[in-house]
Amino acid sequence: MTSSPSIAASTLQADSKTQALLTASQLNKTVQVGEQKLSIIKDVDIYVNAGEFVVIMGKSGSGKSTLLGLLAALDYPDSGTVSLAGQMLSSLDEDALAVIRQQDMGFVFQSFHLLPTLTVAENIAFPLDIARCSNPARVDELIDAVDLGHRRHSLPNQLSGGEQQLHELWSLTQRLYLLMSQQVTWTSKMRIKLCNCY
Questions:
Q1: For the chain, which residues score pLDDT lower than 50?
Q2: Which of 39, 66, 112, 150 qualifies as a FRET site for 123, CA 20 to 30 Å off?
Q3: What span, in angstroms and rounded, lies between the C-alpha atoms of 40 and 111?
């Protein structure tokens, strides 16, 4: 790999006294491709404050998705550390990481991961049902926040691409510390809706 991802940030609500919510220190990740070892991530440091909107940019194959996977503890670095709200993720076992992924961080993938046989409301309620904390009022709040009230009983294949994107975003029903997304089409309107609901 010849270029590493670059990072740009714009603050939505953070102030100068805010402690870093997410930190990554000296992250390194190498992968084996045939007989060649490729250094995908090399000595990356990241500090993200609460309320910041951060963009990771780079060419295709530069390591953006790999870096997101490391930050979300979906993959392990060869060296370096990642902390969320002061908790070192590398020190946790898979069960503890699963709890953090469920309660504290969300990840919106490039592909829409909506259950095709469930309606908008049912897809949004599903994570809460799994966590055994059903909350119909929260489901209604999220549906209304992204103007999908008229689609409440629609199936995913009945939604436009933009509606599916908003629907997947709001399927992350917990009030999260951190939301990561591989989506590159976030609009200012979507950012405002996100801030208003979280």
A1: 1-2, 7-17, 188, 192, 198
A2: 66
A3: 22
The identity of residue 85, as a single letter, is: A
The pTM (predicted TM-score) of the whole model is 0.65
- The dihedrals phi and psi of 30, each to the nearest 5 degrees, come to -120, 140
Question: In this structure, are residues 88 and 81 in contact, taking their beta carbons and an 8 Å threshold?
Answer: yes
Q: What per-residue confidence (pLDDT) applies to 169?
A: 58
Q: 137 exposed, middle or buried (CB, 10 Å; 0-12, 13-18, 19+)?
A: exposed
* Structure-token pair, residue 127: 């994570």
**120-154 residue pLDDT tens:** 888 888 877 877 778 888 888 888 877 788 988 99
End-to-end CA distance of the chain: 37
**Among 66, 84, 76, 101, which Cα is nearest to 22's?**
84
| Neighbouring residues of 21: CB distance < 8 A, sequence distance ≥ 6 | 48, 49, 50, 52, 84, 85, 177, 178
Q: Which residues pair with 49 in a beta bridge?
A: 20
CA 136 to chain centre: 23
127, burial (CB in 10 Å: exposed 0-12, middle 13-18, buried 19+):
middle
